[in-house]
């Protein structure tokens, strides 16, 4: 099996954010191993990546909404033949539609990510564990609607 | 070499918090591999564990500091014979001493930890990566200079 390289991992990280930003029409679920566990957003406990990916997919930007992610320098630690840890900072700006039809802009300026990738038997790199957090609470502003 | 068991990893996590709360500096430092990287709960950037250790030693392991933790359920994902991920929620109460001598008490009721353990060349499980965060904003208050550290 092909050894994991930092470039492979960085590519997957950028693919993840392209999907989340709505710039790549691939199912987010495909990024995760079936048994993956995630800590995300304001969740107090870890949860199955399957559940989280289904929820994130529902909230992906639709028509008239936009999202933008900027990923900082990605630190990749190769830990064994088929596992790598990607750790980096990010900013993520996204829009959501409120129940009353209004729009809000949510800006996460100091995001921090740990994603642990493992190469599966099919050769694909998938996330087995993810921890996303922010060093400061996201800023929310109404943008009309 | 035997596979890493979930019980072994849970025991290491408990040791980690025990060493920190009992201020066992060298044992605590030995939990980390020299190449380990860390996202501390309140840091904007990742840093080498050795830098974080210097800060934690100054702020959390001094005589006027105090650490108490209640751990939630520890999930363990074994990734082969040498690697495992522990993830868990925790409640942390700390009194830390800043470089200027001022002391602050913080409550972190909804802490979240990811710790990646790797066996070293001697077979000892040590942390190669750590990500700590809080699901809610952390409440911190400055303590008066004479106020002794809160005890459990």
Structure summary:
The complex is a heterodimer of chains A (145) and B (152). Chain A is built from 2 helices and 8 strands, in the order H-E-E-H-E-E-E-E-E-E.
SSE layout and pairings?
The complex is a heterodimer of chains A (145) and B (152).
Chain A: H1 6-20, E1 32-39, E2 47-48, H2 49-58, E3 67-71, E4 75-78, E5 83-97, E6 103-119, E7 125-134, E8 139-144
Parallel strand pairs in A: 1-7
Antiparallel strand pairs in A: 1-2, 3-5, 4-5, 5-6, 6-7, 6-8
Chain B: H1 6-21, H2 25-29, E1 32-39, E2 47-48, H3 49-60, E3 66-71, E4 75-78, E5 83-97, E6 103-119, E7 125-134, E8 139-143
Parallel strand pairs in B: 1-7
Antiparallel strand pairs in B: 1-2, 3-5, 4-5, 5-6, 6-7, 6-8
Structure description:
The complex is a heterodimer of chains A (145) and B (152). Chain A has helices at 6-20, 49-58; strands spanning 32-39, 47-48, 67-71, 75-78, 83-97, 103-119, 125-134, 139-144. Chain A is an alpha+beta fold. Chain A has one domain: Nuclear Transport Factor 2, Chain: A (Roll), CATH 3.10.450. In chain A, strands 1, 2, 3, 4, 5, 6, 7 and 8 form an eight-stranded mixed β-sheet that branches. In chain A, a hairpin with a 5-residue loop joins strand 6 (103-119) and strand 7. Chain B has 152 residues and is an alpha+beta fold. Chain B has one domain: Nuclear Transport Factor 2, Chain: A, CATH 3.10.450. Chain B is 22% helix and 44% strand. The mean pLDDT of chain B is 91. The A-B interface holds A 35, 37, 39, 42-46, 75, 77, 79-80, 82-83, 85, 87-89, 110, 112, 114, 116, 118, 128-129, 131, 133-137 and B 35, 37, 39, 42-46, 72, 75, 77, 79-80, 82-83, 85, 87-89, 110, 112, 114, 116, 118, 128-129, 131, 133-137.
């Amino acid at each position: 099996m092909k050894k994991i390289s930092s470039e492979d991992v960085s590519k997957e990280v950028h693919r993840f954010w392209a999907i989340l930003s709505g710039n790549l029409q691939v199912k987010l679920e495909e990024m995760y191993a079936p048994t993956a566990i995630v800590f995300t957003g304001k969740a107090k406990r870890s949860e199955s990546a399957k559940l989280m990916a289904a929820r994130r997919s529902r909230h992906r930007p639709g028509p008239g909404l936009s999202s933008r992610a900027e990923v900082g320098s990605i630190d990749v630690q190769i830990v064994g033949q088929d596992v790598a840890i990607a750790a980096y900072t990010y900013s993520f700006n996204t829009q959501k539609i409120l129940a009353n039809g209004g729009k809000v802009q949510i800006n996460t300026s100091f995001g921090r990510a740990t994603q642990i990738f493992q190469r599966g038997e099919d050769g694909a790199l998938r996330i087995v564990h993810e921890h996303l957090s922010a060093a400061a609470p996201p800023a929310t502003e109404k943008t009309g609607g | 070499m035997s596979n890493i068991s979930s019980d072994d990893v849970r025991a290491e996590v408990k040791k980690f918090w025990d060493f920190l709360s009992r201020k066992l500096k060298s044992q605590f430092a030995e939990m980390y591999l020299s190449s380990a990287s860390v996202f501390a709960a309140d840091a904007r950037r990742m840093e080498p564990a050795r830098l974080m250790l210097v800060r934690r030693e100054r702020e959390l392991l001094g005589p006027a500091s105090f650490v108490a933790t209640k751990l939630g359920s520890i999930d363990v994902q074994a990734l082969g014979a040498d690697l495992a991920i522990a993830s868990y929620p925790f409640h942390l109460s700390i009194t830390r001493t800043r470089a200027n001598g001022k002391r602050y008490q913080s409550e972190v009721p909804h802490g979240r930890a990811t710790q990646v353990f790797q066996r070293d060349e001697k077979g000892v499980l040590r942390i190669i990566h750590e990500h700590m965060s809080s699901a809610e904003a952390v409440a911190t208050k400055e303590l008066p200079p004479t106020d002794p550290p809160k005890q459990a």
